[in-house]
Write a structure and sequence with these properties.
The complex is a heterodimer.
Chain A (H helix, E strand, L loop, with lengths): L12 H18 L2 H24 L9 H31 L1 H6 L7 H27 L7 H30 L2 H17 L12 H9 L1 H13 L11 H28 L2
Helix pairs in contact in A: 1-5, 2-3, 2-5, 3-5, 3-6, 3-7, 3-9, 5-6, 6-7, 6-9, 6-10, 9-10
Chain B lengths: L5 E12 L2 E12 L3 E5 L6 H8 L7 E6 L2 E2 L4 H7 E4 L11 H11 L4 H14 L15 H11 L7 E5 L7 H16 L3 E6 L2 H7 L2 E6 L2 E6 L1 H8 L3 E6 L5 H8 L5 H6 L7 E4 L4 H13 L4 E7 L3 H11 L8 H9 L15 H7 L4
Parallel strand pairs in B: 3-8, 3-9, 6-7, 7-8
Antiparallel strand pairs in B: 1-2, 1-4, 4-5, 9-10, 11-12, 11-13
Helix pairs in contact in B: 3-4, 8-12, 12-13
Classes of the chains: A mainly alpha, B alpha/beta.
Chain lengths: 269, 358
């Protein structure tokens, strides 16, 4: 029969990882996902900056501009949006049965997840670049030198990776692409609004200040604000006490997601 | 290449999910180039069997080998040798048909140029050239199924698992999948076909295994299974139902006492054993003619695989009191493989089943 070839080639994990990554990136260039990602960054910038500038601007804790104050939150919201996309793809793969097929093929078990994470990092890069451009337009600048600017970008990507890994987990658990968006978008909005990203912690009612200060979005904002710097000293210094809690949150998120991933795939055996 | 003649060996496999026993104790073999039909109702354990053989699930007990590789100790070897198509199409629907084929080729180690030329070949053979550069989500059901199977054939498999491959397909698409199965056979590829369509198992399989509640309840060729349920019988339908007692009278010794007893006022036909085939029919016809009884239909029948299946699966529930007619009617409610004969009192095969052949 001619439909059946006789070759039995050897497989390479790197080639498989690359092929699976390209498979996830290719459609984003056709179905408008890249544009959506860029549009989301613009939307977050416009949606927070224009209405809040007049009200909150005065309370920006003595920073040079509200744009400088708001930038970390814009970057975080854009990144979180990438996490939602990751969840959507992961759920789509689960429900379409392609994961099952990959598992029955000579592909190491973690390669599809690694490929999905690579594609997520690619989405995060788009989100980061788009939000930096938006930030530039509203007056955001890096004041801390190249090292701190690179640090800012790496931290955003690390948070993006953690959120994508978590999103991927949600997608794999629910196996329902439509359900992933509300599951992830609502906490993202609540944590974004109840954070020091839009206004200082003192502006919140007393009873909720503890939560606002310690929750991950705020800790991320503190770290990113310090790394971005400012023409005034109000952005805070880059120190372990500022960066440490953020790193801890990222590690907790990544470790927790990996653990749950392992649990989910073990239970499905 | 392993030297064994069997492409698939399953020996005493058991699998439970919590307290649910999916497979109680299953053993069978599939030879190279053989098509084995795995037949059973929903939840019988068909998909669990396929999952174990394709290394997606581990057996709790027992031993299974695919193309000479143990599914537990050498899953990588198994995965190199199989092709799996599930009940749903498992492709990247956001990619085109061609991109999917190239992707599966590359995943199995083909170089880019090899994967591309192989994709082109397969698109031609599966009649998908015109749709090659459209995204799979726009394909029709038959086209999806074809590209799904084509993606599994980029590299030659030793064993093919077709899990209900024609579910929901139109007759023409179904035909093309059936032709493909014969191609596998010619190429010496072993095929394990799970299906609920008896017609399909009958047409394609060399051998059939009937599985229910995680156990094999019958095994053999389609002809053998039909034979086990009951031999040929002659079915006679009178034009006027009121003629039935006269008919029973006229048939004399052709109608065994047991069948005669089973006749009720609800009966609309009589079935008699036809050990001599056409000769029995001719004899019955001449006796009925002599008695001047007008017939609507008289025919030789062999039990259909539908009936075999229903008989076997209801047999397995351990219900011994019900007559076969009741069973068939009970199974009618909601079962999709409904037997063609809704009522047949006095059927010879009924007594055979009740005697507990299995």
């Amino acid at each position: 029969m001619t439909a059946i070839a006789a070759v039995q080639p050897t497989t390479s994990t790197v080639q498989q990882w690359w092929v699976l990554t390209v498979r996830l990136i290719t459609p984003t260039l056709r179905n408008g996902e890249v544009l959506t990602q860029v549009a989301a960054s613009i939307m977050f910038t416009v949606g927070f900056y224009i209405p809040l500038k007049q009200i909150m601007g005065v309370f920006a804790q003595g920073m040079s501009s509200y744009g400088q104050y708001l930038m970390p939150l814009i970057a975080l919201q854009a990144i979180a949006f990438a996490g939602v996309s990751a969840a959507f793809r992961s759920a789509t793969d689960s429900v379409q049965g392609i994961n099952r097929r990959f598992k029955a093929m000579p592909i190491p078990p973690l390669t599809p997840l690694a490929a999905r994470m690579s594609a997520s990092i690619y989405r995060c890069c788009i989100a980061l670049v788009a939000s930096l451009v938006c930030g530039h337009v509203i007056g955001f600048r890096f004041y801390g030198g190249v090292a701190h600017a690179v640090g800012f970008c790496l931290v955003v990507l690390a948070i993006g990776a953690a959120l994508s890994l978590f999103g991927d987990l949600i997608g794999a658990v629910t196996q329902n692409p439509e359900a992933t968006t509300p599951i992830l978008l609502i906490p993202q909005l609540i944590l974004g609004l109840l954070s020091v990203g839009v206004q200082p912690v003192e502006r919140f009612p007393k009873w909720i200040q503890g939560f606002v200060r310690d929750q991950p979005t705020s800790q991320d904002v503190y770290a990113l604000r310090a790394l971005a710097g400012d023409s005034t000293p109000a952005a805070g210094a880059v120190s372990w006490s500022v960066i440490g809690p953020m790193l801890l949150w990222v590690l907790v998120f990544i470790a927790g997601s990996i653990l749950l991933h392992a649990l989910v795939s073990w239970r499905r055996r | 290449m392993p030297s064994t003649d069997n492409a698939v060996v399953v020996d005493g496999v058991r699998k439970t999910f919590g307290s649910v026993v999916a497979l109680a104790d299953i053993s069978f073999k599939v030879g190279r180039g053989e098509v084995l039909g795995l037949l059973g109702p929903n939840g019988a354990g068909k998909t669990t069997t396929v999952d174990i053989l394709s290394t997606l699930t581990r057996p709790d007990r027992g031993h299974a080998e695919v193309a000479g590789h143990d599914v537990v100790s050498d899953p990588a070897g198994v995965r190199q040798s199989i092709m799996l198509t599930g009940q749903q199409v498992a492709l990247d629907e956001m990619l085109t048909g061609r991109e999917n084929l190239v992707m599966f080729g590359r995943l199995q180690g083909l170089k880019k140029s090899q994967a591309r030329s192989r994709a082109k070949e397969l698109l031609g053979q599966f009649d998908l050239v015109d749709a090659a550069d459209r995204v799979v989500s726009t394909y029709s059901g038959g086209m999806r199924r074809r590209i799904d199977i084509a993606c599994g054939l980029v590299v030659r498999p030793e064993v093919v698992f077709l899990d209900e491959p024609t579910n929901g397909l139109d007759p023409r698409s179904r035909q093309s999948i059936w032709e493909l199965v014969s191609d596998f056979k010619e190429a010496g590829i072993a095929t394990l076909l799970t299906t609920q369509y008896l017609e399909e198992a009958d047409a394609l399989s060399d051998r059939i295994i009937v599985i229910d509640h995680g156990r094999i309840i019958a095994e053999g060729t389609a002809a053998e299974l039909k034979e086990r349920i009951g031999a040929t019988y002659c079915e006679i339908v009178p034009r006027h139902l009121t003629d039935l007692p006269a008919m029973a009278e006229a048939l004399g010794s052709l109608l065994p006492e047991k069948n005669r007893m089973a006749l009720t006022t609800a009966s609309d036909r009589i079935a008699i054993p036809a050990p001599d085939g056409p000769r029995t029919l001719a004899q019955a016809l001449s006796q009925l003619n002599a008695a001047n009884i007008d017939l609507l239909d008289i025919a030789l029948r062999r039990p259909s695989l539908d009936e075999v299946f229903l008989a076997l699966t209801t047999e397995n529930t351990g219900d011994t009191s019900a007559t076969r007619v009741e069973r068939i009617e009970a199974a009618d409610h909601g079962a999709q493989y409904v037997g063609r004969h809704r009522k047949r009192t006095g059927d010879t095969s009924a007594t055979r089943i009740d005697a507990g052949v299995f």
